[in-house]
Here is the input.
Amino acid sequence: MPDRDRSGPGSGRLAGLNGRRALFWGAAFGPAAALLLPEIGGAYWALLVLAGALRAPAVWRRHGAALRANPAWWTALALLAAYLLVAWSTALWLDASDFALSRLRRTLLWLGAPLIFLLLLDLGPPRRAVYRALALNAVVFGLWAVAWWAWTDGERVRGVTHAVHFGHAALFLAVAPLALWFERPGRPAARWAGLALAGGLPAVLLSGSRGAWLAAAVVAVFLLALAVRRWGLSRRRIAAAAVLLLVALMGLAQLPVVERRLAETAAELEAVETGAWTTSLGWRLWMWREAWALIRERPFTGAGFSSYYERVRAHVRAGLLPEEMLDFASEPHNDLLYHWVTRGLPGVLVYLLLLAWPAAQALRLLRGPPAAAGAGWALVCLVAVVALAGLTITVFDQRAVLRYLSWTAAGLGYALWTLRARTP
Here is the structure.
C-alpha cells in the first residue's frame, strides 16, 4: 500500500497533532523524575506546572464549558481547597513557627495537579497513552532498583526519599497499567501490562519495604476478586490462580533479600517484647505514642505543625526518649496521626475524604464498561497504595512524593476526562 500523501491543507493539523504527542511523551516521566532525581526532578516538575499555567487560558477557552458542567472537576477542586484551607488556617491560630511554615509551603505542591491536568488536556494524548506512560515509568523504577542494588551491594533501594516511599510508588506504577487489559484484553495490553510488572515488581521487592510487600499482596487478592466477578472465571481457574499466587509468594520468601528482611522483622518483634525499642518497628512505636499523646491533649483543634517536633526534642533533652529519636522528630510516620496532630479533627476528615471520594468513584467505574473499568482500576490502585503507605510512613509531607502524586493524580484525572469526552 503506497504511503499516504501528507501534503495539502490537512498536513499542518497532522503536524500539530504529532507535535502535541511528542510534547506529551516529553512530559510523561514526571513520576520517575520526581522520585529519582533530586534537583532535576524538581525542575522538571516545575516546567510542567509552568507550562500548564501558561496554557490554562487557551485550554479554558476550548474546554471551559465542559469543565464548568463537570461535577468531578469541581469536587476535586473543592477537596483541594478544603485541604489547603484547613492546613494554612493552623498558621493563624495554632502555629506560625518557621518549622510550621516550612511544612505548610509543601502543601502548595498540590496546586500542581490541576495545572498538569490542564497541560494534559491541552496536549490531548489518547487515554491509553497515559497508562503506557505509567508502564514506562515502572521500567525506569526497575532499572534504577537493579542498578542501585548492584552498586550498593544489596542496600535497600530508595530514590529521593525513603525506601518505603520508593516501594509503594513502584507498586502503583507496576499494577496501574493493567487498566489496558481491563479496557481491551489482548496481546498489546498484555505486553504493556507485563512490561509494567516486570519493571515495577523488582523495584518493590528490592525496596525492602514490608508495607509495600503487604500492599502488593492486598492488590493481588483484590485483582483476583475483580477477575472472578468481571470475567466470570471458572472455579478451576480460580483455584489455579490462587495456587499460582501462593507458590509465587512462597518462592519470593526464599529469596535472600526477603529472608533477611523477614528475619529482621522477627528480631524487631522480639526486641519490642523485651523492651528494646531501638529498631525500625520500635522507633515507629515511639513516634506513634508521642503523636497519640498530643492528640489526646487537643483532639479537636490539633496542636500545629511544630508541636510533635518540639515535644520529641523536649523529651529527648529530659531523657525520656533516646537521642536517636531526633532523627524522627519531624513527623510521626503515619498519615492519619500526622493530620490529626497538626490539623485536628477537621484535618482528619479532609484527609479521609481525599481517600474516600476517589475510592468511591473508582468502585463505581469498575462496574461500568471496559474503558471505565480500566480507569477505575488505575484509580483504586492509587488510592489503595497511598492509604496503605500512610499506615507506616507520612506520605503527604514529602516534597518529592507530592510531586509524584500531583502528576499521577493529574494523569488519572485526564484518563477519566477522556471517558466523559468519549475519546480513545
User: Anything to note?
Assistant: The first helix runs from residue 11 to 27.
